[in-house]
Amino acid sequence: MNQTQDNIYWGPLLRGISCAAADLEIRLLFHYCPPDHIGDFVKTTRVDGVIALAPYVAHEPFLRAMWQARIPFVATSCSFSDENLPCVDTDNFAGVRQALEHLWSLGHRQIAIVNLALSGCDPLRRWEAFQQFMDEKGMLLKPYWAILHPAFPCGSPETAVQWMSHLLSHISLPTAIFGATYDMALITLQALRRCGVTVPQEVSLVGFDDPASAAFLDPPLTTVRQPVEQLGRRAVQKLYESLQKGVRPEGTELLQPELVVRLSTAPPKEEATPNDLA
């Protein structure tokens, strides 16, 4: 299981994997492998262990099969309800809570979510964390404030912005929006701009992921920074430590994210009405 996309997440993750392997003098073999061929791949190459980039919910059965086959592995970019599976991931619940607590402290009680990748493990965890926070605070989540899709419903970024602009122009807007990934925050920002809605004067916006470009947006984006390179490093270290002891890796480790507050968030323009708080 592998990802070859050269983007803000996979680049730093692979750099962390490569640097940790170099530090430990481990020889790496990068290989794209369909999930159902992992067992054959391990037997053919005779590798000592596997770092599996397994970002989708659908990968869980294959990881379980690897576990049952006693293949030494550590998966990253994922976490599941079974915490015995050897995974290294960001603590998505902690990251979402930081973002929403920030909005709450500013006075926001009408918060929407844009999450267009629910087939991914991390985006799904963020949706679950969002619902949990809203329930704890007793905040109303109107159906049209949960903009959800299992995978990006549009092709090009321009098409996605057009789709989002059309959707936002036909609903009553909240005072704040949480974009479950950096791309989703960018799409939302552009869509709001096309709808004539200013950020943060009319709607505050928070994202998840903090590439260098986030600080240079207009306005600079408040977002959750993931320790992406450290995820890769820790996955290699976890596998190596277990192999040195002659045991299989086990247990999920969650690394802590950090909220970076910039200028895309501000107190709401108007206070919510009692009905909005119901």
Automatic annotation (TrEMBL):
Ranges for domain Transcriptional regulator LacI/GalR-like sensor: 101-265
Source species, domain of life: Bacteria
Pfam families xrefs: Peripla_BP_3 (PF13377)
Keyword Aminoacyl-tRNA synthetase attributed: no
UniProt keyword list: DNA-binding, Transcription, Transcription regulation
Keyword Ribosomal protein appears in the UniProt entry: no
Xref: InterPro entries: LacI/GalR-like_sensor (IPR046335), Peripla_BP_I (IPR028082)
Gene3D superfamilies assigned to the protein according to its UniProt record, in alphabetical order: 3.40.50.2300
GO molecular function: DNA-binding transcription factor activity; transcription cis-regulatory region binding
The protein's name: HTH-type transcriptional repressor CytR
Gene name in the database record: cytR_1
